[in-house]
Amino acid sequence: MAQIRLKNVSKRWGKFVGVDNFNLDIADQEFLVLLGPSGCGKTTTMRMIAGLEEITEGEVWIGDQMVNKLEPKDRDISMVFQSYGLYPNMTVYENIRFPLKVRKVPKEQHHERVMAASKMVELDDFLERRPAALSGGQRQRVALARAIVREPNAFLMDEPLSNLDAKLRVSTRAQIKNLHHTLKRTTVYVTHDQIEAMTLADRVVVMNKGVVQQVGTPMEIYDQPANTFVASFIGSPAMNLVNGMIADGVFTSDGIRIEGLPHRASGAVTLGFRAEDANLAEANGQIEAPIYTVELLGEATMLSMRVAGELVSIKVGKDYRAEIGELARIAIPASACHIFDQSTGARIEA
Amino acid sequence: MPNKTFFAFILPSLIAMVLFIALPIVSVVVQSLYVSHEQILVEVENCQPFGGCSTELRVDSAATAALRDEQPLGRFNGLGTYVNRAHLATTELGVILSSERSFGEKWGQILNLPFYKALIFTLVYCFFVTPLAMALGFTIALAVNALPKVTKGPIIFFSLLPMIITPLIGSLILYWMLSPNGILGATIQHIFNDPTLSLRASPALTWGALLTYGVWTNAPFSFVVFYAGLQTVPGDTLESAMIDGASRWERIRYVIIPHLAPLATFVALVQLMDNFRVFEPIVGFSAEANATSLSWLIYNDLTGDSQQFGSAGATSVLTILGVVILLSPVLVRTWREFKHKAV
């Protein structure tokens, strides 16, 4: 059992705030992803859970124990690092065995446990090699095996896929997801890649500048972003955001007019809609603007056009062809629109 | 890079190496094969007005000077200098070893042969001072690395002092402190309750003082190199080890020491070479009665009224051979690694 609880956790270096008043309950066996751009405090948060970073304020609980003052080794967690953190002078076998050795696990268990862990990550054939003789993906699998061999209560993973090439990233990602399913351990995973977050997480925490922006399931975060930051961070391409005025459920701005929006909002707002929610209009569209670029994606075609000073992207059928500068009419259903307060960026619920 | 460009690139250093390393070594080897001419003696008949005549031998200064001018290298002696009593002393050594005396007595006699006396101290100095100075330097580096930033600067400065102080002055200071009325000397006499205990009287104390001085003066070099090396230890690996459950000592043993091993080889090489030519402390401590070194022998040959270039040359060549033998295991290993990597 390893729930992880962060209560009012803050990290400051002098006047610089790394993480500000972080509150979160991570359930046992949950796969939680901390997502955000570089410098948003996600890694710092994870390092505070691991005990590698001192907590300036607040409490971290693992299970029913407050761990603020505990050494990393006493927190019963294991961690996978972006740059693997392997021991270069030891073989793969010795690397995986290391936690058992230094924790004085009875020697007769070592072989069996190392073999089980290495089998789980398909490393059986490389046990006698040194890390230098392995590819990036294999090295990261050694790091994974070393993390699981001890069977800790929780795993912490700090951008484990960032150093891998795109293809390997997909397969290792699948492997991590499968491992979590098999081992059923609480996992905290840090990434700046929203696709990793969407594919792996039970819940995602989106962070920016040390502050939690939204906590929710991947679908919640995608479908109901709490603010313009989350909206622009999640999804590929990011959500289109257009500033304008709303009154009586009608949003207007330069080159765009959408009717039938909720009446609660009025005044200066930011309207958001996703590229895939818009489409070509048969007759009168909500947007009428010249095409800025046409990009062929294979499974679809991406149009972009300038609306109210912003470039917006529209995903249309893969056979659509048009010239740059041609006038296009775009239909955006009111139900697919998100409305945010223009000054605070916060979502205005319908 | 084309061969020609490469050659042009290294030519200046090649010339410098030939001029300042190869030629002096050749010159030393040649000089070691010669000894200075003996003086030319002439028989002179000396007649007194009332005492009759007698013959006596006299030095023919003019002829000697003329001969020395004509052949400034001296007389060719082959390997004679190498095997004489002042050097390898093969005859004396044979006699000592084939005698019926006990091992202790034989050892004492060998220690009386100047070359072996110097060689034994030089080797003891090398193999005692090098590892201890490295261990001390490493310990200081670990300690300084763990200090808060503010205190690091001054502590690093103090740790480097022994390296900054001229060896002769450093050893003189310790010598004075160890003299009977110095703070350490007086304390030692008090502790052992022996008013006659002094550096001059006790070879053990002299050796102890020289070795202590050696560790003190050599540690800063290891410290600087290891401290620089510590800054390159990968943080992720150290943190992995922390989370894996390694104690501070285990992190040093399994992460830091393997990471610094190539650096340690370098430090050991440099320190061994450095310590093999130990010289200043022997002069500083006026220790020649109890301990001499190969470098001191060379110095001794070259000072005084008559410089014995042949003898100094022979000791120098033997010193060079000693350094080669000393470093050969490391050099062979490096070469093997190089070949292994090349394959």
Descriptive notes:
The complex is a heterodimer of chains A (350) and B (343). Chain A contains eight helices and 20 strands. In chain A, the strands form four sheets. A six-stranded mixed beta sheet of chain A has the order 6-7-8-3-9-10, with helices on both faces. Chain A has 350 residues and is α+β, with helices and mostly antiparallel strands. Helices cover 24% and strands 34% of the residues of chain A. The model of chain A has no long low-confidence stretch (mean pLDDT 92). Chain A has helices spanning 42-50, 92-102, 107-120, 136-148, 166-183, 194-200, 218-223, 228-233, and strands at 4-13, 16-26, 31-35, 57-62, 65-66, 77-80, 154-158, 186-191, 203-208, 211-216, 240-247, 250-253, 256-258, 267-273, 279-280, 287-296, 301-307, 310-316, 327-331, 338-341. Chain B is mainly alpha-helical. Chain B is built from 15 helices and four strands. Chain B has a two-stranded antiparallel sheet with strand order 1-4. The longest helix of chain B has 34 residues, at 309-342. Chain B: It comes from Devosia subaequoris. Chain B: InterPro entries: ABC_transporter_permease (IPR051393), MetI-like (IPR000515), MetI-like_sf (IPR035906).
